[in-house]
Design brief:
274 residues, Purple Acid Phosphatase, chain A, domain 2, 14 strands
Length: 274
Amino acid sequence: MKILYIAEIVGKAGIYCVKNTLPALKKETGADAVIVCADAATNGSGLGRHHAAYLRKLGVNIITLGDQCFFKKDLVECMPSISYVLRPFNLNKEAPGIGAKVFTIQSANRAPQKLAVAVLLGQAHFVKIHADNPFACMPALLEKLRAETPFIVLDFHAIASAEKKTLFAMADGLCSAVIGSHTRVVTADAAVLPGGTAVITDAGRTGSQFSVGGNNAQARIQEYLSGIPDWTKEAWDGLETQGVLIDIAEDGTAGSITLVKARPPQIPAGPHAE
């Protein structure tokens, strides 16, 4: 099975990138399933219900969220009925939505296959949301998913690289891949570990690359000077879709993990995408 993971979408610019690059990427890579991190897709923070449905319409199979999973009320209210959107698994059990699911993937010229996807949230440095220990809950979670399918992809939404690297080592041999997200900067350490688990500290971001995490650089500079937060100004320069392609063998071990980058064929003059 080939899995195309699209790195964190930031704002309308990121959605524009997905709209204009995903069809070609799916064709070029032969991906059986597409997973996207959309934790900042709506106005640069969180995911709205409209954008969740629109990404699905564009050909996305599974959407993962992180620390901003509950930022948009309209999505939170619908989470119990939107099974393709996953929030972190290690949140309070009373939290809406689900953090892990086994999906049936139907791809061309191949019988339906089961793909398990889960999200874990790191603990280091998050201040607006608090999760249970991901290291404590991961073994039982992966054991349960392995009982249904050998194809398992875990999105680890965390800040500290040391926390990510440690979880990678613990997960090696227990799942097909662990993809790091949240920091929005693609790292150069994509690898398949000895136990057959593909990993990368961060898959990057989808949206403006000439920016600060997809946001307008001058606005962020002013934020640091004034101390007043401002995440509302999106950037549209240097648009690019980033992510990874993971090739998984029949036994669930990863054969390879490859960085994926694609630029939209036409750069917009301003923020007018869906």
